[in-house]
Amino acid sequence: MAAFSMTVRKRLTAGDTAFELDFCIDAGGMDCVALFGHSGAGKTTLLRMIAGLTVPDEGRIALGDRVLFDSAARINVPPQHRRVGLVFQEYALFPRMTVEQNVRYGLARDAGGSVDSLLETFGLAPLRRRLPAMLSGGQQQRVALARTLAANPSVLLLDEPLSALDPVMRTSLQEALCSARRAMPVLTFLVSHDCGEIFRLATRVVRIADGSITASGTPQEVFAAPGDRMRVSGQVLDNRKHGAINVVTIAVGEEISRIALSPDEAEGLAVGDLVSVSVKAFNPDVRKIVK
What is the DSSP-derived secondary structure letter of residue 289? Predict the structure, then answer.
């Protein structure tokens, strides 16, 4: 598998704040690199640069001996010729095509796996003749992932593709992704705010803040740093006042946790809300995820 290298700079604006995205990375052809950081740090922009949808101000992007972008040499390969698969939260399926037809549409001539094997890997074989409107959100995202891998991409870009799913479905799809990457190894970049997801999928984490890399290493190395919080996502099941505190019940994956918060901390948390949860020195921090 070809190695990947990327050194880019671009001036960005997040809200009223302008900053420079300054990013440099080398990755192995079978790595899964998680990009981790607060919203607006530049993570999605980096994926768009790899895909060719956003042009860096300067820099170079190469996959092995294939140069995708080089500002000095005036090289900028069009997105359709980069062999990059990009999956967002939105499924973007063809509504009049069945599951099998959607996946077959993406099939490359040199694909390492067949449509049947991809349908099996993602648990879609029993649904192969259904239209997207007949599927749940999780099932539609399985189709989108299978179709992207059917194109046999050189790089797979995942921009929080599972964040809109319920915790159980999210865990199931993470396992399917692991199986698919074992069967069809591909360099993967994953944007995620979920530590559990990163530990399950990523071989490496790059933490980004305001456009710059602040930490890089294995998930254990990056998230075990002194002062770091371990953060996962979950869903509020209950928010009930008990005396001077509120007890908030949250589903994280298949686990149910009850967290004591002050009334101010619990204010605005309603049943069904998606939240991110972290713990540092037994001090819980619960934040509502605003879509």
Answer: P
Decide: helix, strand or coil at residue 110. Answer: coil
Going by C-alpha positions, the residue among 40, 37, 94, 63 that lies closest to residue 215 is 37
- Separation of alpha carbons 94 and 2, rounded Å: 32
Distances (CA, A) of 253 to 195, 220, 257: 12, 20, 10
The CATH code of the domain at 230-288 is 2.40.50.140
d(CA 128, CA 119): 8
Give the C-alpha separation, 202 to 31, whole Å: 8
Could you please report the per-residue DSSP string of 233-244?
EEEEEEEEEETT
Element (H, E) at 250: strand 245-252
Find the helix or strand (DSSP H, E) in which 118 lies: helix 115-121
Domain assignments of the chain as residue spans, ordered by start: 4-223, 230-288
Q: What fold characterizes domain 4-223? A: Rossmann fold (3.40.50)
At 10 the three-state DSSP class reads: strand
pTM over 0.85: no
What does residue 158 show for φ and ψ, rounded to 5 degrees? Answer: -120, 110
Q: At 4, which helix (H) or strand (E)?
A: strand 4-14
Over its length of 291 residues, how does the chain's per-residue pLDDT go in tens digits? Answer: 668 999 999 998 877 788 899 999 999 988 999 999 888 889 999 999 999 999 999 999 999 999 999 999 999 999 999 999 998 877 789 999 999 999 998 886 555 458 998 999 999 999 999 999 999 988 999 999 999 999 989 999 999 888 777 777 888 888 888 888 888 889 999 998 887 788 889 999 999 988 899 999 998 888 766 555 556 678 899 999 888 888 899 887 656 778 888 888 889 899 988 887 775 544 556 777 655
